[in-house]
Amino acid sequence: MNGEYVIWSFERQQWWASGEHGYKVNLDRAGRYTRQDAGRIVIDSVMLDDVGMLYSEAVSNGPPLYHPYKGAS
Q: Cβ(32)–Cβ(42) under 8 Å?
């Protein structure tokens, strides 16, 4: 799938900011990442608390409700 990705932090309950620096509550201010960069960031997450998703899906659905390893947030 092509498109911009955003990354949700379950630990912070916020979106990653651009340039992998900080977090943003508002999706419109979240950083946009390529699929490859989002995948690398999620894989490198020490606590496995980050999830990448297409920006268009985040706009439609909001942040993920279920942590992929821990269940409901």
A: no
pLDDT tens, residue by residue, 15-50: 999 999 999 999 999 999 999 999 999 988 877 789
Please tell me what DSSP assigns to residue 35. H
Based on the structure, what is the number of domains in the chain? 1
Q: Is 63 exposed, middle or buried (0-12, 13-18, 19+ CB in 10 A)?
A: middle
Max CA distance (Å), the chain: 28
Q: What is the pTM of this model?
A: 0.88
The CA distance from 60 to 15, in Å, is 15
Q: How far, CA to CA in Å, does 14 sit from each of 1, 2, 28, 72?
A: 24, 23, 12, 16
Give me the domain span that covers residue 34.
5-72
Q: Please check whether residue 8 is in contact with residue 64, taking contact to mean a CB–CB distance below 8 angstroms.
A: yes
